[in-house]
Amino acid sequence: MRIGLFVTCVNDLLYPRTGIAVVTLLERLGHRVEFPEAQSCCGQMHANTGYRDEAVPLIERFARVFEPYDAVVVPSGSCAAMVRDTYPRLVPDTAGIAARTYELSEFLVDVLGVTDVGASFPHRVTYHPSCHGARMLRLGDRPLRLLREVRGIELVELPAAEECCGFGGTFALKNAEVSSEMLRDKCRHIRDSGAEVVVATDNSCLMHIGGGLSRAGVPVRAMHYAEILAS
Amino acid sequence: MNPPNPLIGTRPFPEAAATELRNPQLRANLTHATHTIRNKRSRVVGEVPDWEQLRETGRAIKADVLRRLPELLEQFEAAATAAGATVHWARDAAEACALIARIIHATGHREVVKVKSMATQEIGLNEALEAEGIAAYETDLAELIVQLADDTPSHILVPAIHYNRSQIRDIFLRRMSDVDPSLSDQPAELAEAARKHLRRRFLNAKVAISGANFAIAETGTLVVVESEGNGRMCLTLPETLISVVGIEKILPTFNDLEVFLQLLPRSSTGERMNPYTSMWTGVTPGDGPQNVHIVLIDNGRTATLADEVGRQALACIRCSACLNVCPVYERTGGHAYGSVYPGPIGAILSPQLTGVARNSSLPFASSLCGACYDVCPVKINIPEVLVHLRQEYVNDKRDQTSAERAAMRALAWVMRDSRRWSTALRAARTGGGVLASVLRRPRVRHMPWPLSAWTSSRDAPLPAQETFREWWARRERNGGEER
Amino acid sequence: MIKKTGQYGGARAEILRRVRAAVAGAPPVTVPRDYHFTRPDIDLVELFIERLTDYKARVHRGEEAIATCLDGVSRLAVPAGIPRRWLSAYQGQVLTEPLTTETLDTVDAVLTGCALAIAETGTLVLDAGPDQGTRALTLIPDHHICVVRREQIVGGVPEAVRRLNPTRPLTWISGPSATSDIELNRVEGVHGPRRLDVVLVE
Question: Do A50 and B390 touch (CB under 8 A)?
Answer without folding.
Answer: yes
